Amino acid sequence: MKKTIIITGGAGFIGSHVVRLFVTKYPDYKIINLDKLTYAGNLENLRDIDQLPNYTFEKADITDAKRIGEIFAKYQPDGVIHLAAESHVDRSITNPLEFIQTNVVGTLTLLNAARDAWKGNMEGKKFYHISTDEVYGSLGETGMFTEETPYDPRSPYSASKASSDHLVRAYYHTYKLPINISNCSNNYGPNHFPEKLIPLSINNIKNNKPIPIYGKGENVRDWLYVVDHARAIDVIFHKGVIGETYNIGGHNEWTNIKLIKLLCEIMDKKLGRAPGTSAKLITYVTDRAGHDLRYAIDATKIKRELGWEPSLQFEEGLEKTVDWYLANEQWLNNVVSGDYEKYYAKQYNR
Ligand code: NAD
Ligand code: DAU
């Protein structure tokens, strides 16, 4: 069946993998990538597929109701997969308002556009909102987040995502808008912007710069290869039951320090350095304010009901990721110039 789908945030890290998957797997679908191209949006991420006939790019801000209404009128989408967001916790601590604007007001603007466009006939339509495990708060040493875990966001970023999740559910209950939500754990892989732990560390190791570890490095994250997240989004978009939420995770918990030590070993091998060379760059720095201790996703529901599970082991995925960054030096050099340098100097006092 032919479909027209608007994917927001398609020029970003996860969005670019989702756009690539949909454009190549579903040649009969028309895919519209709607993105403002903030510092995190990069059309280079889609160079390999941007000439395909079923792909279109629209530069637009999701908070601009008039422009969003025009785009919905122009394409009359059957589906929206909404990834556009401000996504970096540290930036939310220095500039919360931008997160409320994009993540809350932007999501509401899209919900209104979908509701207007689908008024009177919601059959076959879907508004699919991509969210994060951070809405559930912080775990102690045991336990996992399920779809029933009460929300307890603790950073301006996670509070803005929680708020957007609530609005999406409110539109389902109040206006019967057909929705799905998924809450995923930490992604890693190609095209990840080097403000986040793994790509920042790869870049610093490559350039013999200190690897900044917040606090004692004992915080735990559950890592999932980004292509596996894109596969889960495909499954939920096509098979997810309307109104339902699905947790997505890797069953792959690492303390930051253990992860970075593994990354250092891989980088030593790839760069032909003596074992232990890169680990000397590890530098403990001031902790993130309100730093959540541990995230862990219970992904039983999506496995049981939709048959999805991660395909890649972490060691293999991390090695693939390092290979990609070393082979795509130009991509990395392009994104770490200009504004990135200013951000880095301010965030890390150097
Ligand atoms: P990203 O920061 O790499 O990309 C965000 C994209 O959104 C960029 O292309 C940017 O240009 C675009 N954008 C930002 N503001 C916009 C606006 N006002 N209008 C239109 N476009 C705008 O983010 P990501 O890491 O790819 O995350 C994508 C989504 O997945 C987010 O909603 C995030 O909350 C969620 N998520 C991320 C992770 C993760 O580990 N990265 C995990 C779970 C959920
Ligand atoms: O859990 C899903 C979330 O994962 C997504 O919703 C967010 O969009 C995404 O950015 C990510 O959030 P985190 O805060 O977990 O990711 P980040 O890469 O910023 O940090 C990972 C861990 O590493 C965290 O415990 C903080 C720590 N860290 C991070 C940076 C940037 C450091 O120790 N040093 C650093 O320089």
Describe the structure.
By secondary structure, the chain is of the alpha/beta class. It has 2 domains: 3-188 and 223-248, Rossmann fold (3-Layer(aba) Sandwich), CATH 3.40.50; 197-220 and 253-290 and 313-348, UDP-galactose 4-epimerase, domain 1 (Alpha-Beta Complex), CATH 3.90.25.10. The chain contains 12 helices and 12 strands. It has helices spanning 13-25, 65-75, 89-94, 96-118, 156-175, 197-206, 226-239, 256-271, 300-306, 314-327, 329-335, 339-348; strands at 4-8, 30-35, 55-59, 79-82, 126-132, 179-184, 186-188, 211-214, 220-225, 245-248, 253-255, 282-285. Helix 5 links the parallel strand 5 (126-132) and strand 6. The mean pLDDT is 97. 2'deoxy-thymidine-5'-diphospho-alpha-D-glucose is lined by residues 87-89, 132-134, 185-186, 196-197, 200, 212-214, 219, 221, 256, 288, 295.
For the structure shown, list the relevant keywords.
single chain, 350 residues, alpha/beta, Rossmann fold, UDP-galactose 4-epimerase, domain 1, 2 domains, three-stranded mixed sheet, 12 helices, 43% helix, 16% strand, globular, binds nicotinamide-adenine-dinucleotide, binds 2'deoxy-thymidine-5'-diphospho-alpha-D-glucose
Largest sheet: 7 strands, parallel
**In angstroms, what separates the terminal alpha carbons?**
54 Å
**CATH topology tier name of the largest domain:** Rossmann fold
> Which range best describes the helical content: under 10%, 10-25%, 25-40%, 40-55%, 55-70% or over 70%?
40-55%
Number of continuous helical runs = 12
> Any idea what the CATH superfamily of the largest domain is called?
NAD(P)-binding Rossmann-like Domain
CATH architecture of the largest domain: 3-Layer(aba) Sandwich
Question: Uncertain spans, ≥5 residues at pLDDT below 50?
Answer: none
Percent of residues in beta strands? 15-25%
Inertia-based shape: globular
Instruction: Give the class from helix and strand content and strand pairing.
Output: alpha/beta
Assembly state here? single chain
Main sheet: strand order: 3-2-1-4-5-6-10
What integer value in Å does the Rg equal? 20 Å
Mean pLDDT: 97
What's the CATH C level of the largest domain?
Answer: Alpha Beta
Could you give the count of β-strands? Answer: 12
Q: How many domains make up the 3D coordinates?
A: 2
Bound molecules: nicotinamide-adenine-dinucleotide, 2'deoxy-thymidine-5'-diphospho-alpha-D-glucose
Order of helices and strands: EHEEHEHHEHEEHEEHEEHEHHHH
